[in-house]
């Protein structure tokens, strides 16, 4: 699009619906530019305008989302609804095609000064990022469902986060395993020896475990890609024993009353930590422990990436900090000077 001069007159040149249009406007370049600006605005309005029957308020769209949500577990659904409630509280009466970057920035400001009702603490940047990520995801879905022609907040800026990782010592890991009751104890053992995510362990089926060849095939993954995880001697022994006990079940860790995957509650984990006196540890930190000790014991980052199932090597590279820290301790314990 642009303006050009021909035969002492200024013309506008633009495309509409794939066709090129050229037409004379005025002897004044300024006037021609104003006309072109107006034409651009009209074209954009027609292209991105939402039909009246598709205009919808955020609260109503959120209700549709909840009604059609089928992929989440019960606990995951509760977390999803909790985050969604925050967004509805702020954006509820606003039409989704009116939401833009400015509104997101205002939302961030409103949340950063807010306090969590349960803990009476300021809401963390990471929690706000989860809200923003959900908002972007919802508006992406609005595009697919025909309520928006494009996502106005797809380039939304998130708060910078420091990875929250708690690496347990060998003594702490031993204490955790000693105090844990079955089958949680075996679940923890698998997490520490394979780096598998909690959901992957829950949904692990016997057909995925190849004891003879010593590997697990993980199918339901976060990155939606198949990956193989080698089994060490401890895992081979554990799965051999478990298979002899409950190999007739579908799942490796089965709820005997329902025949569904075994799932432990957050309270069970908290009680275990209380008995051991270990603080500030999430189950997901067991995955970080596996990755950290794998590198400290000579593992390479490429193999670790494949084992953990990371889509991007940059996600795995954060564990090199632990390796570097271990090297610093090694060097600081061996110092020679000339005095």
Could you list some keywords that capture this structure?
hpI Integrase, Chain A; 339 residues; DNA polymerase, domain 1; 6 strands; three-stranded antiparallel β-sheet; single chain; 9% strand; mainly alpha; 3 domains
The major pleated sheet works out as: 3 strands, antiparallel
Structural class: mainly alpha
Residue runs with pLDDT of under 50 for 5 or more positions: none
Predict the CATH topology of the largest domain. hpI Integrase, Chain A
Total count of helical runs of at least 4 residues: 14
* Secondary-structure element series: EEEHHHHHHHHEEEHHHHHH
Between the first and last Cα atoms, what is the distance in angstroms? 76 Å
Compute the number of strand runs: 6
Give me the CATH superfamily of the largest domain. Intergrase catalytic core
- Mean pLDDT over the residues: 81
* Second CATH tier, the architecture of the largest domain: Orthogonal Bundle
Taken from the alpha-carbon principal axes, the silhouette is elongated
Strand line-up in the sheet with most strands: 1-2-3
Strand content: 5-15%
Radius of gyration: 28 Å
Helix content: 40-55%
CATH class of the largest domain: Mainly Alpha
Count of spatially separate domains: 3
Explain how this protein is built.
This protein has 339 residues and is mainly α. It has three domains: 2-49; 58-144, DNA polymerase, domain 1, CATH 1.10.150; 170-331, hpI Integrase, Chain A (Orthogonal Bundle). Helices cover 50% and strands 9% of the residues. Helix 6 (170-179) packs antiparallel against helix 7 (184-194), helix 6 (170-179) packs across helix 10 and helix 11 (285-296) packs across helix 14 (320-332). The termini are far apart. 18% of the residues are buried. The mean pLDDT is 81.
């Amino acid at each position: 699009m642009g303006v050009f001069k021909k035969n002492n007159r200024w013309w506008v040149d633009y495309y509409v619906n794939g066709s090129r249009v050229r037409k004379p406007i005025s002897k004044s370049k300024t006037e021609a530019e104003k006309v072109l600006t107006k034409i651009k605005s009209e074209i954009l309005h027609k292209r991105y305008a939402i039909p009246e029957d598709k205009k919808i308020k955020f609260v109503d769209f959120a209700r549709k989302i909840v009604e059609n949500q089928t992929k989440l577990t019960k606990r995951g659904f509760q977390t999803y609804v909790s985050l969604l409630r925050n967004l509805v509280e702020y954006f509820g009466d606003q039409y989704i095609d009116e939401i833009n970057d400015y509104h997101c920035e205002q939302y961030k400001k409103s949340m950063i000064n807010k306090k969590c009702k349960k803990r009476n603490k300021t809401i963390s940047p990471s929690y706000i990022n989860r809200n923003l990520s959900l908002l972007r995801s919802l508006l992406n879905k609005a595009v697919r469902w025909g309520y928006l022609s494009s996502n106005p907040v797809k380039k939304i800026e998130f708060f910078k986060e420091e990875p929250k990782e708690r690496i347990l010592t060998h003594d702490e890991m031993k204490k955790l395993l000693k105090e844990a009751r079955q089958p949680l104890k075996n679940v923890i053992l698998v997490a520490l020896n394979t780096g598998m995510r909690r959901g992957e362990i829950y949904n692990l089926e016997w057909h995925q475990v190849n004891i003879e060849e010593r590997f697990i095939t993980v199918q339901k993954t976060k990155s939606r890609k198949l990956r193989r995880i080698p089994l060490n001697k401890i895992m081979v022994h554990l799965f051999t024993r478990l298979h002899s006990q409950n190999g007739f079940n579908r799942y490796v860790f089965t709820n005997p009353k329902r025949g569904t995957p075994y799932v432990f509650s957050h309270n069970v984990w908290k009680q275990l930590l209380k008995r051991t006196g270990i603080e500030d540890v999430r189950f997901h930190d067991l995955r970080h422990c596996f990755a950290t000790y794998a590198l400290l014991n000579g593992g390479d980052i490429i193999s670790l990436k494949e084992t953990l199932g990371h889509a991007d090597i940059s996600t795995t590279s954060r564990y090199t900090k632990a390796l570097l820290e271990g090297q610093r301790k090694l060097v600081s314990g061996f110092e020679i000077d000339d005095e």
